[in-house]
Write a structure and sequence with these properties.
282 residues, mainly beta, M1 Pyruvate Kinase, Domain 3, 2 domains, nine-stranded mixed beta sheet, 10% helix
């Protein structure tokens, strides 16, 4: 494990749309800066995702100086201003992300209309302000941890070796963006992330607290926005299944270190403090 390094970093500004590969990430209390701070909700103010709307995979964001630039096939470019610059302009509303009710800010109806037209459903775009605190499941929390609009944890880590091993077992080519990690590592054996336990990157402490159970989003082709098969879930179920769930990757918590600037970069090394035991599967 001594040679493990970060090979890729990803953020997903709007929950369940395409990610952005970045060279360095600024860590905040709830995760990487801008990661899943926006979310689309339906007419019941409940989050929507690729589970029901795989076409979300075709929406592509880009960070710009003036805001979030968003593109989708046959749609004009959409500019979403960074809400922290205009926070007083937005109305508050209560939204649902999984089992959590969260206070969010609605931006404007013109932005809603863009997403509604592309997806063919009535939806709204909301933003999580700094004042809205969403606690991590207390069963796993360590330091009053909070999350953004992620599925429940600030970050997700997967190794390149794990993806390579899975690709050797399936008859389609899987890319890392099917699994939506924030941190990708290299220089290790397949599934080394299972035993990361407590580790450091650039003096920032991380804790691998829960293996990530995978859902039908992994069956969506990120290039076409379509579900083409039951892979990789069928293959994962043969060797990564426990309690009727399949697992791939590790959810992370972290502890900020303000003397380090709280940044990590591609090429940074992982320093293992205390490894955890290997997972067992059915």
């Amino acid at each position: 494990m001594a040679d493990m390094i970060i090979s890729q970093l990803w953020i997903y500004p709007i929950k369940s749309i395409k990610g952005i590969a970045i060279e360095h990430a600024q860590l905040e209390k709830r995760g990487f800066q801008y990661d899943r701070r926006w979310m689309l909700v339906d007419s019941n103010n409940r989050f929507i995702s690729q589970r029901l709307y795989p076409k979300l995979a075709l929406i592509e964001p880009e960070l710009a100086d003036f805001g979030l630039s968003v593109r989708a096939p046959d749609m004009p470019v959409l500019i979403i201003p960074y809400p922290d610059q205009q926070i007083e302009l937005y109305d508050e509303m209560e939204v649902i992300c999984w089992d959590d009710q969260i206070t969010a800010h609605h931006i404007n109806t013109a932005i809603d209309n863009w997403f509604s037209e592309f997806l063919g459903i009535d939806c709204q775009l909301v933003y999580m302000p700094d004042s809205s605190l969403r606690p991590v499941d207390p069963e796993y929390a360590k330091n009053d941890d909070i999350a953004s609009f992620s599925d429940g944890f600030p970050n997700l880590i997967i190794s390149e070796a794990s993806l390579d091993d899975l690709n050797r077992r399936v008859d389609i080519e899987l890319t890392i963006n099917r699994f939506r990690p924030n941190i990708v590592i290299s220089g290790c054996e397949p599934y080394a992330e299972d035993t990361l336990g407590h580790f450091k990157v650039n003096q920032i402490e991380f804790f691998a607290v829960k293996p990530c159970s995978r859902c039908v989003i992994t069956t969506v082709n990120p290039e076409t926005g379509e579900k083409e098969s039951r892979e990789p879930l069928e293959t994962l179920a043969k060797f990564r299944k426990k309690d009727r769930k399949v697992f791939f990757g590790q959810n992370l918590l972290h502890k900020l270190n303000f003397t380090s600037g709280n940044q990590i970069r591609v090429g940074d090394k992982l320093e293992i403090i205390h490894a955890s035991e290997a997972l067992t599967f059915d």
